[in-house]
């Protein structure tokens, strides 16, 4: 009777095992997961707002509004989507860093801290960029139609 090959766990199970490992390191990884998991949940609404804006452009009368609307809208969509993507990817990149067997522990900690700081700074900057683009005069019609004047 042939023996079964051991089943490889899925990538998500490996990531979950990494974050919830019975290690002292898991205190820091759970804090990291909490921060970036909260950011991912907080910014998931921005994905729907970006889709709403794209549909507003495609279905609305603003298709031929000019290049200023095009570039402002592009900055707005990128500023909306980027915080979610960065926070979501930051959850998975930590597992990749700590999975490297050839790196020393101090290098892994340094890269972890660098990833956390840079990710948070880019999230803040892109959120501010989306707010700045939303307050431009060319975006006023979308902001009024979407009832976002006081929220952004």
Summary keywords:
152 residues; 5 helices
Mean pLDDT: 86
Overall 3D form = elongated
Write the H/E string, N to C.
HHHHH
User: What gap, in angstroms, lies between the N and C termini?
Assistant: 65 Å
- By secondary-structure content and strand pairing, the structural class works out as mainly alpha
Rounded to the nearest angstrom, the radius of gyration is: 21 Å
| Number of discrete helical segments | 5
> Low-confidence parts lasting 5 or more residues at pLDDT below 50?
none
Summarize the model shown.
The chain has 152 residues and is mainly α.
Q: What does this protein structure show overall?
A:
This protein is mostly helical. The protein has one domain. The chain has helices at residues 11-19, 25-59, 67-99, 105-134, 140-145. Helix 2 runs antiparallel to helix 3 (67-99) and helix 3 packs antiparallel against helix 4. The protein is elongated, with a radius of gyration of 21 Å. 19% of the residues are buried.
Blueprint of the fold:
Blueprint: H1 11-19, H2 25-59, H3 67-99, H4 105-134, H5 140-145
Helix pairs in contact: 2-3, 3-4
């Amino acid at each position: 009777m042939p023996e079964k090959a051991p089943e490889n766990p899925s990538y998500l199970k490996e990531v979950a095992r990494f974050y919830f490992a019975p290690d002292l390191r898991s205190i820091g990884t759970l804090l990291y997961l909490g921060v970036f998991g909260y950011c991912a949940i907080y910014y998931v609404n921005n994905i729907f707002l970006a889709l709403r804006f794209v549909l507003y452009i495609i279905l609305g009368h603003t298709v031929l509004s000019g290049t200023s609307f095009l570039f402002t809208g592009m900055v707005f969509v990128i500023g909306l989507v980027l915080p979610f993507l960065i926070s979501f990817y930051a959850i998975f990149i930590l597992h990749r860093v700590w999975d490297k067997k050839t790196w020393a522990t101090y290098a892994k900690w340094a890269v972890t801290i660098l990833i956390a700081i840079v990710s948070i700074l880019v999230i803040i900057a892109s959120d501010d960029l989306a707010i700045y683009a939303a307050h431009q005069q060319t975006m006023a019609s979308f902001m009024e139609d979407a009832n976002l004047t006081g929220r952004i």
